[in-house]
Design brief:
Layout: H1 4-28, H2 44-49, H3 59-78, E1 81-83, E2 93-95, E3 101-102, H4 104-109, H5 120-129
Antiparallel strand pairs: 1-2, 2-3
Helix pairs in contact: 1-3
Length: about 130
């Protein structure tokens, strides 16, 4: 199990990534900057649906930043924590107070197709925030 300094480092990296994305959104006007309110989760979906328009921003960094922002909102408002990836996992996980684990970065990475609702990630956030099975 990682020690507290490793978890603090992971949380700081996630927050830094989300802040970098936010700076990019503010500087370029490419999307609505995040205000760190729980309601701001609704601004992630439009960015995911239009990710190809972010040509000046590396797509891997974009996805990671959005996933980190998603996770940081769960931490700030729902008592979640980051967990380092283990085994075959490639990204850090969010652990809810109930112990349920979620790969919110992967949720952002799985680009929506035209059939999916435009608020797919908002719906997922609301389900995770309730800490109920989906």
């Amino acid at each position: 199990m990682p020690d507290q300094s490793e978890l603090d480092s992971l949380a700081a990296a996630a927050e830094s990534s989300a802040n970098s994305l936010n700076d990019f959104l503010e500087e370029t006007g490419a999307g609505r900057p995040f205000d760190w309110s729980e309601e701001s989760i609704i601004h992630i979906d439009p960015i995911c649906h239009n990710a190809d328009l972010f040509g000046d921003f590396d797509q891997v960094t974009l996805v990671f930043g959005l996933g980190c922002y998603f996770g940081e909102l769960l931490i700030k408002y729902r008592g979640a924590k980051w967990r380092e990836p283990t085994g075959e996992e490639k990204q850090p996980m969010i652990v809810m107070p109930s112990g349920r684990e979620w790969n919110v970065i992967k949720a952002v990475e799985d680009r929506p197709d035209q059939e999916e609702p435009l608020d797919r990630l908002t719906q997922l956030y609301n389900q995770i925030a309730l800490d109920e099975p989906i």
